């Protein structure tokens, strides 16, 4: 379209130039007295020049579609997208740290058992009869007047020399004076063969017994 417009404008300019030249010639002819002859010539030339505008070429119509071509497929519109879906839940999983390594040390071997004793250990043995350690003559006078009786249990510690080093009441008779008389007489009168260890050597030991306090009959 732009090329045709340029060509048409060039033709118009050419025609205008020719008309202008003819007008100048006509004026000159009028001045010189040849106006009539010149007018005829101008009229003939003007009649001979036919300015026609060139029409732009027409665009041909599009070719018809082929008859055997199938119709275009029908595309269904995409389903609507719903934005009301719940947000995904994010679960945080905490991975516990690996357990610390356990270092085990082998237990030391048990010590060897001690050698068997050469002698059987023995506890202290009383010398004489324990019934002579406390007699009716040793009965506390107040307990005798009140006619109180009972049994006092005792335990004594015996040194390596066979003598009593301490005495304690393990079972009370119910009368403090009878309990006190028991330990006093045992410490004073009791004698022992000392205890011995596995080598047969004297060692400290303990002895346990009891005394029954009974009011003598006349």
UniProtKB/TrEMBL annotation:
Record bears the keyword Cell cycle: no
GO cellular component, one term: plasma membrane protein complex
GO molecular function per UniProt: energy transducer activity
Membrane topology listed for this record: Single-pass membrane protein
Major place of residence: membrane
Regions of compositional bias (Low complexity) in chain numbering: 82-94
Family assignment from sequence similarity: Belongs to the TonB family.
Protein name: TonB C-terminal domain-containing protein
Organism for this UniProt entry: Novosphingobium sediminis
